[in-house]
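Students often ask why inverse folding is considered easier than folding. One informal answer: many sequences map to the same fold, so there is more than one right answer. In these notes we will look at a single instance of the problem. The structure comes first.
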Protein backbone atom coordinates (compact mmCIF):
# COMPACT_ATOMS: atom_id res chain seq x y z
CA UNK A 1 0.00 0.00 0.00
CA UNK A 2 1.32 3.43 -0.94
CA UNK A 3 1.45 5.78 2.02
CA UNK A 4 0.62 9.39 1.23
CA UNK A 5 3.16 11.84 2.61
CA UNK A 6 1.63 14.92 4.22
CA UNK A 7 2.39 18.20 2.51
CA UNK A 8 2.19 21.89 3.33
CA UNK A 9 0.11 23.00 0.36
CA UNK A 10 -2.95 24.06 2.35
CA UNK A 11 -0.91 25.61 5.14
CA UNK A 12 1.09 27.80 2.76
CA UNK A 13 -2.07 28.99 1.04
CA UNK A 14 -3.81 29.87 4.32
CA UNK A 15 -0.71 31.56 5.72
CA UNK A 16 -0.81 34.07 2.87
CA UNK A 17 -3.88 35.51 4.60
CA UNK A 18 -3.19 34.76 8.28
CA UNK A 19 -0.13 35.35 10.47
CA UNK A 20 -0.47 31.99 12.21
CA UNK A 21 -1.95 28.57 11.61
CA UNK A 22 -3.01 26.16 14.34
CA UNK A 23 -3.67 22.53 13.46
CA UNK A 24 -5.62 20.22 15.79
CA UNK A 25 -6.23 16.48 15.82
CA UNK A 26 -7.73 14.12 18.38
CA UNK A 27 -6.51 10.80 19.72
CA UNK A 28 -8.48 8.28 21.77
CA UNK A 29 -11.97 9.09 20.57
CA UNK A 30 -12.85 5.42 20.01
CA UNK A 31 -11.17 3.95 23.09
CA UNK A 32 -13.09 2.20 25.87
CA UNK A 33 -10.88 3.61 28.63
CA UNK A 34 -8.75 6.62 29.33
CA UNK A 35 -9.06 10.25 28.31
CA UNK A 36 -9.39 11.75 24.89
CA UNK A 37 -6.45 13.93 23.87
CA UNK A 38 -6.27 16.73 21.30
CA UNK A 39 -2.94 17.86 19.94
CA UNK A 40 -2.54 21.44 18.74
CA UNK A 41 0.47 22.89 16.91
CA UNK A 42 1.32 26.38 15.71
CA UNK A 43 3.19 27.23 12.53
CA UNK A 44 3.85 30.49 10.72
CA UNK A 45 4.88 31.24 7.14
CA UNK A 46 8.63 30.72 7.70
CA UNK A 47 7.98 27.33 9.35
CA UNK A 48 5.75 26.33 6.46
CA UNK A 49 8.67 26.77 4.08
CA UNK A 50 10.87 24.32 6.00
CA UNK A 51 11.17 20.67 5.07
CA UNK A 52 8.54 18.38 6.59
CA UNK A 53 10.17 16.35 9.39
CA UNK A 54 11.45 12.95 8.34
CA UNK A 55 8.91 10.17 8.84
CA UNK A 56 6.02 12.48 9.69
CA UNK A 57 2.65 10.87 8.99
CA UNK A 58 -0.76 10.57 10.57
CA UNK A 59 0.05 8.82 13.86
CA UNK A 60 -1.90 5.72 12.83
CA UNK A 61 0.57 5.24 9.96
CA UNK A 62 3.73 5.55 12.05
CA UNK A 63 4.99 2.30 13.65
CA UNK A 64 4.63 2.47 17.41
CA UNK A 65 8.34 2.11 18.13
CA UNK A 66 9.10 5.09 15.87
CA UNK A 67 6.41 7.46 17.11
CA UNK A 68 8.42 9.08 19.95
CA UNK A 69 11.28 10.12 17.65
CA UNK A 70 8.84 11.36 15.00
CA UNK A 71 6.89 13.29 17.64
CA UNK A 72 10.11 14.86 18.92
CA UNK A 73 11.05 15.99 15.40
CA UNK A 74 7.54 17.36 14.88
CA UNK A 75 7.65 19.29 18.17
CA UNK A 76 11.00 20.82 17.18
CA UNK A 77 9.66 21.79 13.75
CA UNK A 78 6.53 23.67 14.87
CA UNK A 79 6.54 27.03 16.66
CA UNK A 80 4.70 25.53 19.65
CA UNK A 81 2.65 22.48 20.57
CA UNK A 82 0.20 21.49 23.27
CA UNK A 83 -2.01 18.57 24.23
CA UNK A 84 -5.42 19.09 25.83
CA UNK A 85 -7.27 16.38 27.71
CA UNK A 86 -10.80 15.40 28.70
CA UNK A 87 -11.14 12.56 31.19
CA UNK A 88 -13.28 9.44 30.99
CA UNK A 89 -15.51 10.96 33.67
CA UNK A 90 -16.00 14.10 31.59
CA UNK A 91 -16.76 11.97 28.52
CA UNK A 92 -19.45 10.19 30.55
CA UNK A 93 -20.86 13.49 31.81
CA UNK A 94 -20.99 15.53 28.60
CA UNK A 95 -20.55 13.06 25.73
CA UNK A 96 -17.61 12.43 23.43
CA UNK A 97 -18.14 15.34 21.03
CA UNK A 98 -18.37 17.96 23.75
CA UNK A 99 -15.40 16.32 25.45
CA UNK A 100 -13.38 16.68 22.23
CA UNK A 101 -14.26 20.36 22.19
CA UNK A 102 -13.29 20.75 25.84
CA UNK A 103 -9.94 19.06 25.26
CA UNK A 104 -9.28 21.33 22.27
CA UNK A 105 -10.15 24.46 24.24
CA UNK A 106 -7.66 23.33 26.89
CA UNK A 107 -4.94 22.78 24.27
CA UNK A 108 -5.60 26.25 22.83
CA UNK A 109 -5.44 27.74 26.33
CA UNK A 110 -2.02 26.15 26.77
CA UNK A 111 -0.84 27.74 23.52
CA UNK A 112 -2.25 31.08 24.68
CA UNK A 113 -0.26 30.81 27.93
CA UNK A 114 2.88 30.64 25.78
CA UNK A 115 2.03 33.86 23.95
CA UNK A 116 0.12 32.58 20.91
CA UNK A 117 -3.30 34.10 20.30
CA UNK A 118 -5.71 31.60 18.71
CA UNK A 119 -7.96 34.42 17.48
CA UNK A 120 -5.07 35.61 15.28
CA UNK A 121 -4.76 32.21 13.62
CA UNK A 122 -6.67 30.10 11.16
CA UNK A 123 -7.43 26.74 12.80
CA UNK A 124 -7.29 23.51 10.80
CA UNK A 125 -9.35 20.81 12.51
CA UNK A 126 -9.08 17.24 11.26
CA UNK A 127 -12.51 15.89 10.32
CA UNK A 128 -15.74 17.26 8.90
CA UNK A 129 -17.27 18.79 12.04
CA UNK A 130 -16.40 21.83 14.16
CA UNK A 131 -16.59 20.57 17.75
CA UNK A 132 -14.57 23.51 19.09
CA UNK A 133 -17.18 26.29 18.78
CA UNK A 134 -19.88 24.41 20.76
CA UNK A 135 -17.35 24.04 23.60
CA UNK A 136 -17.42 27.81 24.09
CA UNK A 137 -14.59 28.98 21.84
CA UNK A 138 -15.61 32.18 20.10
CA UNK A 139 -13.91 34.38 17.56
CA UNK A 140 -11.93 31.56 15.95
CA UNK A 141 -11.59 30.92 12.23
CA UNK A 142 -12.04 27.14 12.24
CA UNK A 143 -11.65 25.08 9.06
CA UNK A 144 -12.62 21.40 9.36
CA UNK A 145 -10.60 19.43 6.81
CA UNK A 146 -11.35 15.79 6.05
CA UNK A 147 -8.18 13.66 6.25
CA UNK A 148 -6.13 16.64 7.38
CA UNK A 149 -4.00 14.30 9.52
CA UNK A 150 -3.13 12.38 6.36
CA UNK A 151 -2.66 15.27 3.93
CA UNK A 152 -1.54 18.28 6.00
CA UNK A 153 1.85 18.13 7.71
CA UNK A 154 0.72 20.43 10.52
CA UNK A 155 -2.22 18.17 11.41
CA UNK A 156 0.00 15.09 11.16
CA UNK A 157 2.34 16.75 13.66
CA UNK A 158 -0.57 17.42 16.04
CA UNK A 159 -1.69 13.81 15.62
CA UNK A 160 1.62 12.15 16.43
CA UNK A 161 2.39 14.50 19.35
CA UNK A 162 -1.00 13.75 20.91
CA UNK A 163 -0.68 10.02 20.22
CA UNK A 164 2.67 9.72 21.98
CA UNK A 165 1.37 11.71 24.96
CA UNK A 166 -1.77 9.60 25.32
CA UNK A 167 0.05 6.30 24.80
CA UNK A 168 2.48 7.27 27.56
CA UNK A 169 -0.39 8.05 29.92
CA UNK A 170 -2.14 4.75 29.20
CA UNK A 171 1.09 2.80 29.67
CA UNK A 172 1.47 4.46 33.07
CA UNK A 173 -2.08 3.49 34.03
CA UNK A 174 -1.30 -0.09 33.04
CA UNK A 175 1.04 -0.39 36.02
CA UNK A 176 -1.88 0.22 38.40
CA UNK A 177 -4.35 -2.07 36.60
CA UNK A 178 -2.36 -4.56 34.51
CA UNK A 179 -5.32 -6.90 33.95
CA UNK A 180 -6.58 -4.63 31.16
CA UNK A 181 -3.30 -4.76 29.19
CA UNK A 182 -3.36 -1.01 28.52
CA UNK A 183 0.35 -1.00 27.74
CA UNK A 184 -0.58 -3.07 24.68
CA UNK A 185 -4.03 -1.80 23.69
CA UNK A 186 -3.90 1.81 25.05
CA UNK A 187 -7.52 1.51 26.17
CA UNK A 188 -8.93 0.45 22.80
CA UNK A 189 -11.28 -2.49 22.30
CA UNK A 190 -8.81 -5.34 21.83
CA UNK A 191 -9.99 -8.88 22.54
CA UNK A 192 -7.93 -9.08 25.75
CA UNK A 193 -9.31 -5.76 26.95
CA UNK A 194 -12.92 -6.85 26.42
CA UNK A 195 -12.20 -10.19 28.09
CA UNK A 196 -10.71 -8.40 31.10
CA UNK A 197 -13.84 -6.25 31.36
CA UNK A 198 -15.99 -9.38 31.30
CA UNK A 199 -13.85 -10.99 33.99
CA UNK A 200 -12.96 -8.07 36.25
CA UNK A 201 -15.54 -5.39 35.52
CA UNK A 202 -14.73 -1.80 34.68
CA UNK A 203 -12.35 0.59 36.40
CA UNK A 204 -12.56 4.26 37.23
CA UNK A 205 -10.70 4.93 33.97
CA UNK A 206 -13.35 3.27 31.77
CA UNK A 207 -16.05 5.21 29.97
CA UNK A 208 -18.92 3.81 31.99
CA UNK A 209 -21.61 5.39 29.80
CA UNK A 210 -20.42 3.46 26.76
CA UNK A 211 -21.62 0.03 25.68
CA UNK A 212 -19.42 -1.86 28.11
CA UNK A 213 -20.53 -4.89 30.05
CA UNK A 214 -22.04 -3.44 33.28
CA UNK A 215 -19.91 -4.52 36.21
CA UNK A 216 -18.93 -3.27 39.63
CA UNK A 217 -16.67 -0.21 39.56
CA UNK A 218 -13.23 -0.80 41.09
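Output (designed amino acids):
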Amino acid sequence: MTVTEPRLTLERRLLREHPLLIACDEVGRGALAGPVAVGAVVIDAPRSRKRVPKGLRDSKLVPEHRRPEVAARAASWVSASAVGWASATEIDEIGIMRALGLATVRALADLRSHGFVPEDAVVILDGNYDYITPAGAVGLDIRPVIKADRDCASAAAASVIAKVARDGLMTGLHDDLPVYEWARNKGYASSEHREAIRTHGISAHHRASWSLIPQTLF
